[in-house]
Write a structure and sequence with these properties.
The complex is a heterodimer. By secondary structure, chain A is of the alpha+beta class. Chain A contains five helices and five strands; from the N terminus they run E-E-H-E-E-E-H-H-H-H. Chain A has a five-stranded mixed β-sheet with strand order 2-1-5-3-4, with helices on both faces. Chain A is globular. The termini of chain A are far apart. Chain B contains eleven helices and 14 strands. Chain B has helices spanning about 15-25, 35-40, 80-85, 85-90, 90-100, 105-110, 110-115, 125-130, 230-235, 240-255, 265-289, and strands at about 5-10, 30, 50-55, 65, 70-75, 135-140, 145-150, 155, 160, 165-175, 180-185, 195-205, 210-220, 225. In chain B, the strands form four sheets. A five-stranded antiparallel β-sheet of chain B has the order 4-5-10-6-7. A four-stranded antiparallel β-sheet of chain B has the order 11-12-13-14, sandwiched between helices. In chain B, strands 1-3-2 form a three-stranded parallel β-sheet, covered by helices on one side. In chain B, a hairpin with a 2-residue loop joins strand 8 (about 155) and strand 9 (about 160). In chain B, helix 9 packs antiparallel against helix 10 and helix 10 (about 240-255) runs antiparallel to helix 11 (about 265-289). Chain B starts with 6 loop residues before the first strand and ends with a helix. The chains are: A alpha+beta, B alpha+beta. The interface of A and B includes residues 2, 57 and 64 of A.
């Protein structure tokens, strides 16, 4: 099967590669670009650990082919910090104990990033609804919700 | 999980996409949101030799009123449907449905057209579209044709779309005044398929008599089910608790669930009855507003 050349803007930088059409976006990000902050969790569109932003929208990168991202813009967890400073969401997860093992955290942050972009002042219910496609198996959701609230409050300042 | 190899095709017009379907026949699959197709390919339940990605075809994502219809472009994302003010105000039943589909990330990719064209009785839009009396616009080599949603679902994963046709639009008649609808879904967790789902849409007259009724059932049969007997029962009567209760019992009889991981068949029938009751009640309340 013919390989395809793709060009994707990732965290602000144009990246080019030649890939098999069946290469999943998450494997492109992790294995080709070597950006390993995006995790493979369930690999079945359930857990949200692989969440990245595609043209600003949160998507599950295990359920998309890399060729579909050709000519489009991606943001991964590596693109979230600003000039070496933690993003308010990253700071919130740290301050509010929003993680234990940290496996779900990149996906949680990317989903929350998109959520706050659309809705800078979400209610608790809107946060819970917003992260309903992300599973955490250790911290529990209480502190994750608090972390997002922390970030929303800080970003509003 | 790594899907089997395939040739990736990316048409930029519908005409080009249809020509690709004609050329490759059963060896090709249309890639819309991909949220059903890609998981099936990863599990190797689907092994298309050609994947035709229609996402770059312009003009297929829209939600608009058009000559007495709500027209939804085939590639419209569930998230856009969920966020649409037009849908929220005129079609709360569709707003309900979109919010129940999978999870937020999946809804950013998943399309309304794909949810119908996949022909999966576990998907949520089919029941809603059956309740609303929608039409599906299919585009093929000879142009477009309109298919009534009642004639669309043939059997499990099989629809009235020909091998060289693409679902390009969904058309829903704008309901008259005093109409309302609701969709109720019982699911084990966010993102799961329905254990049972029920869509109900009613139109009342000034004295509260039910003039039109549509009831669709999710995941309780080999295809999405239109609960005709229950619809017939409430039409022409006041939509009161007794009528709703009776119709709900009949809807239970219209369903044909099978026992599986989500529960035994008799439990699902009981849930069809309860959710039909709730959906009709809320549909009535919304119609009276």
């Amino acid at each position: 099967m013919a390989k395809q050349s793709i060009q994707v803007k990732v965290n602000g930088t144009e990246r080019e590669a030649t890939v098999e059409p069946r290469l999943l976006l998450v494997h492109f990000i992790r294995d080709v670009l070597r950006l390993t902050g995006t995790h493979v969790g369930c690999d079945t569109t359930n857990c949200g650990a692989c969440t990245v932003l595609l043209d600003g929208r949160a998507v599950k990168s295990c359920t998309m082919f890399a060729v579909q991202a050709d000519g489009r813009e991606l943001m991964t967890i590596e693109g979230v910090a600003l000039d070496g400073q933690l993003h308010p969401l990253q700071e919130g997860f740290k301050e509010e104990h929003g993680l234990q093992c940290g496996f779900c955290t990149p996906g949680m942050i990317m989903t929350s990033y998109a959520l706050l972009g659309k809705n800078p002042k979400p209610s608790e219910e809107e946060i819970r609804w917003g992260i309903s496609g992300n599973l955490c198996r250790c911290t529990g959701y209480q502190n994750i919700v608090k972390a997002v609230q922390y970030a929303a409050a800080k970003m509003a300042k | 999980m790594i899907p089997p190899s395939f040739e990736y095709l990316r048409p930029s017009t519908i005409k080009e996409a249809v020509a690709m379907l004609q050329k490759h026949g059963d060896a090709a699959k249309i890639l819309s949101g991909g949220q059903s197709l890609i998981p099936m390919m990863k599990l190797r339940l689907a092994r298309p030799e050609y994947v035709i990605d229609i996402n770059r075809i312009p003009g297929l994502e829209y939600i608009k009123e058009d000559g007495g219809y709500l027209a939804i472009g085939g590639l419209t994302r569930e998230a856009d449907l969920e966020a649409s003010e037009l849908v929220r105000s005129r079609f709360p039943i569709i707003h309900d449905t979109a919010g129940f589909i999978a999870d937020p990330q999946v809804r950013n990719m998943a399309t309304v057209g794909g949810n119908l064209a996949h022909g999966d009785p576990a998907n949520d839009h089919p029941a809603t579209m059956l309740a609303l009396g929608a039409q599906v616009v299919a585009t093929g080599p000879k142009g477009t044709r309109t298919i009534s949603i009642e004639d669309f679902f043939l059997s499990l994963f099989s629809t009235a779309l020909a091998g060289d046709e693409i679902l390009t639009e969904i058309r829903i008649p704008l309901p008259p005044g005093r109409s309302g609808g609701a969709y109720f879904k019982l699911e084990r967790k966010v993102g799961d398929f329905a254990t049972v789902g029920v869509a109900a849409q009613v139109t009342l007259d000034d004295s509260g008599i039910c003039q039109r009724a549509g009831i669709g059932l999710t995941n309780v049969g080999g295809t999405p089910i239109k609960a005709r007997k229950a619809e017939d029962l409430i039409r022409g009567k006041p939509l009161d608790a007794a009528a709703i209760d009776h119709a709900a019992q009949i809807a239970g009889q219209d369903s044909e669930p099978s026992s599986d991981l989500r529960g035994p068949a008799d439990y699902k029938k009981a849930m069809v009855i309860e959710l039909t009751r709730r959906a009709l009640k809320q549909a009535g309340e919304r119609a009276r507003k």
